[in-house]
Amino acid sequence: MGLEDIIRVADGREKADLLLKNAKIVNVFAGEIIEDHVAISKDMIAGFGKYSAHKTIDLEGKYVCPGLIDGHVHIESSLLSVPEYARAVVPLGTTAVIADPHEIANVLGLDGIRYMLDSSRNLPLDVYITLPSCVPASHLETTGARLTASDLSLLIDEERILGVGEVMNFPSVLKGDRGTLEKIAVAGRRVVEGHAPGLSGKHLSAYISAGIRSDHECTSVEEAEEKLQKGMHIMIREASPARNLKTLLPLVNAKNSRRFSFVSDDRHPIDLVEEGHIDFMIRTAVKMAVDPVVAIQLATINTAEYFRLGNVGAVAPGYQADLVVFDTPSDFKVLKVMKRGGVVAENGCLILPLKAPEVHVRSSINVAWLDTKDLSIKAEGSEIRVIEVIPDQIVTKERIENATVRNGLAVADPDRDLLKIAVLERHLASGNIGLGFVKGFGLKKGAIGSSVAHDSHNIVVVGTSDQDMMCAIEEIIKMRGGLVAVVDGKVLSALTLEIAGLMSSEPFERVEHRMRELASAAKQMECGLERPFMTLSFMALSVIPELKLTDKGLVDVDQFSIVPLFTK
Amino acid sequence: MGLEDIIRVADGREKADLLLKNAKIVNVFAGEIIEDHVAISKDMIAGFGKYSAHKTIDLEGKYVCPGLIDGHVHIESSLLSVPEYARAVVPLGTTAVIADPHEIANVLGLDGIRYMLDSSRNLPLDVYITLPSCVPASHLETTGARLTASDLSLLIDEERILGVGEVMNFPSVLKGDRGTLEKIAVAGRRVVEGHAPGLSGKHLSAYISAGIRSDHECTSVEEAEEKLQKGMHIMIREASPARNLKTLLPLVNAKNSRRFSFVSDDRHPIDLVEEGHIDFMIRTAVKMAVDPVVAIQLATINTAEYFRLGNVGAVAPGYQADLVVFDTPSDFKVLKVMKRGGVVAENGCLILPLKAPEVHVRSSINVAWLDTKDLSIKAEGSEIRVIEVIPDQIVTKERIENATVRNGLAVADPDRDLLKIAVLERHLASGNIGLGFVKGFGLKKGAIGSSVAHDSHNIVVVGTSDQDMMCAIEEIIKMRGGLVAVVDGKVLSALTLEIAGLMSSEPFERVEHRMRELASAAKQMECGLERPFMTLSFMALSVIPELKLTDKGLVDVDQFSIVPLFTK
Question: Over 60: is that where the pLDDT of B1 sits?
């Protein structure tokens, strides 16, 4: 049974394994801070009060709260392997995440989800999974996998699977598309996660009626308020590419706060290091005058209850001993992190070596043989559709420009900031290459490339010359996935992402360092964007307006169809 | 799939079945009252706002809240069949109950639980069930059934089963008794209900550590506060025999209110008629200055969320259209009740005939042949242990008194208010009869008897003469269960409880009338107790101090053993 031990300890008939003395306990149930001691039996909290214990840690009046929970994250966006992701976030107080392996599933299908399950065992971080509901996200690009309701049903009963992940394809829901509704039905009594940017009124009611009960895409108080009133659990997001925390916090009050959680969605390694994770959201909220206990509730019990996790998110008897020791509510500086009853991190660092399981996954870069001339564009007209980047946003504009034509070919013209962009299918070796032009990167020389390209994660390259673009592609293929900056046929900087072409197996400090190096390489090439590789990774996202490029060609997102490059 | 319809209606592409116009909607998510219209598609809420509909009801500014939920009730205590219970409580706004069929399970075991499941189909009341964990409640009486973990596991996956019912035997939990822990384990991810009157400190922590996460037995703010802090969901009870509402409400505040629910536990027909049900608790709370929206949350969403019921407890798209229309929050007078999208009650009455299923259950009165002389007590001493009733309480006192002896027999002596009490085993026809004496009923003549006698529900009779006691027993046997008042061999009043000896199949108005008649008959017999049959039904409850009588004899509850009648 296993319960006998904790009962004996809680009842004081047997010594506790550990006693945390003199703690200011954040009690998420009472909504108060209570001074007391916390007794731990093995991996569980056994009780409050005086207990004799094998080991005692005197917290000398420091605060203790439950381990933090990220309610919605794509771990792949950190570019880190799961163990390295744990090494990055656990010292920040995060002891559980609800991960949607949407990215790796688009590349490797069920194998990708299994890889995330397998590679997240034995970590000081509990990784729960919601099953990606939108693989592929669109029919306008070639993806590595296709997951139907039958596929999802193979995994739904696994222990750490909490439900069905964000249903991004809201038009399918509104249409009553059978395949989509079947995927929702796979959840059964589990949660179905939402993703409904800007949806309101009757459309929103229809979307929610399908059983979708959360949203992490609110970008205004009005949007969040309507979704709240209609019964959605509002996940306030502070992602690297989308920051909604300060905008949404004014909506949170004593009457409704239980219906909110903190989530990171996509968070890059540099942000994790510089700002933090869920701890950063608590700090920010407290600075914005949110009651610290309420802020911590959004980061713990609210998320646990929403996902029906009965044993995490609180400091109370019978709960898993996942704890964060911090100095003051105003700073929320994480001093110590405990996972399943043991101290695992102190002062920002894991103190134990990870016992990450060795998990293998097949190589995902599967490209048809190609040549530099495959990147050339025959000038079939004089005017072209150009993707215009809007700095720090994932939406783009469509612009009509004159083509620069040389020797019968439409070519990049760095002086006009008119760069060539190519998307190369990398799953099926189909030989598909989408070609087009983009404005806004500002490169004066060389090329940059990535095997991270939402949502199908084909290879995307932007460059000033076909030669350097080809060199970038070659380097990515050699690395079996990665990010690269090339000038004059020479690799200036590269990061290997050999796990599905999305994640690195390197230590997170090295990944972070490489990301800085890559950004500075891009700067050398006179790229004007703050985060050129992030921007690059959204150039193929065929569900976000206006104009995108996939391996099938240019996509007019509003029309949701392929359009020709030349307009005249 | 079934979802297509509601999606089309919510999206405004198809007419709603019903539109409730001009409602003041109690929004339990936002914690606010919002003026809007509510569109309904079949049995579900589809959306807010303007919709065209096949039918419209103009609420003219009246309030609408979710149907009320009783979080813990023994329907058997109403003495009503499930359909009649529904007829009594649905017009009061109750549209769902979480029932613990502990009483009928003690009589009929799994058959009793199945009877409750079967007889609660097709009602305008959703009856959810938690599986009784304490059958029998004690080894000191003979019960009709014994339910082990294996038995419970046969039913746990049925649709309306929400978990394991109140674990009353806390000493077993603290001892780590294997059978008890196995029953808790049957719940799996479902809830395990608590029952821990007065438990505190380490004992309480140990009890909670076993995974028990609610309690409805708090009788003081201090008790409830400790349980709240330790993670229990606090069910505030306003039962007929135990009223805790006014005591506990001062603990409820904006920070902790989500952790409370309203429950009735045991509520008799007279109280249902005179005061009400969960609606009465809302009224009382609002009178005590609780925010009406918070009071309604305690009666709706808090309970639904605690039990992980995803589709009830709120007025929002995708929720079951269980609604209460009421006048003002201060009165909370229920004007109209809607169940699954249809109006089922108006102005205190069901407006539709019940389509209750015909369900049969075997007769439960199985008594060995007996004779008046089987009730006589040979005078084996001069001093006796006497059960002393404390009016309106279920605890009793032990008193040592001189026996009144006639012809070598210890007999009832009404002049001294020393009445005889007998408990007759009625399940196995074992012939067990427990005999003793009781003070406090005050009868000057006749006898009263009941086949409701917690928790084993043997036949209990208190009387002034063996002849009248025998007559009462005979009448109960003839009725196949019931309550009876007898004087001089004549039945003054009786209520047939032929369903397990616990519940009547008569209309609830008639049951209520009979209960008043029985009370007045007892008064005629000079009984001084307000509710003699309620008091009578607790005389055999061998787990509540101090002295009780079961079919096995007198029970000293503190020693938890059988003790002799004669002390000298």
Answer: no
Structure confidence by residue, pLDDT tens digits, A435-475: 999 999 999 999 999 999 999 999 999 999 999 999 999 99
Among partner residues B9, B202, B256, which is closest to A47 by beta-carbon distance?
B202
DSSP, collapsed to helix, strand or coil, labels residue A269 as helix
ipTM rounded to 2 decimals: 0.94
Structure token pair of residue B270 = 């007279």
Contact at 8 Å (CB) between B396 and B546?
yes
- pLDDT, tens digit (0-9, with 9 covering 90-100), for B444-483: 999 999 999 999 999 999 999 999 999 999 999 999 999 9
Residue A504: closest CA among A518, A491, A522, A492: A518
Residue B537 has pLDDT above 70, yes or no: yes
Q: What is the mean pLDDT of chain B?
A: 96
The whole model's pTM is what? 0.96
Interface test mutation site (partner B, options A1, A5, A6, A7, max chain B beta carbons within 10 A): A7
| Chain A closest-CA separation from residue B253 CA (Å) | 9
Contacts of B527 (CB under 8 A, 6+ apart): B441, B442, B443, B448
Q: Per the CB < 8 Å rule, is A29 touching B201?
A: no
Nearest to A30 among B181, B201, B229 (CB): B229
**Strands B191-194 and B161-167, bridge-based pairing:** parallel
A163-184 burial, b for 16+ CB within 10 Å, e for fewer? bbbbbbbbebbbbbeeebbebb
Residues 6+ away with beta carbon under 8 Å from B356: B81, B82, B83, B119, B122, B123
- Please identify which residue in the block is written with the tokens 């004066």: A444
Return the DSSP state at B131. E
| Interhelix angle A82-89/A508-524, nearest 10 degrees | 90
Tell me how far apart the alpha carbons of residues A449 and B256 are, in angstroms, rounded to a whole number: 52
Query: Treating both helix axes as pointing N-terminal to C-terminal, what angle do B3-10 and A178-186 enclose, rounded to 10 degrees?
Result: 110
* Cα atoms in the Cβ-side hemisphere of radius 13 Å centred on A207: 27
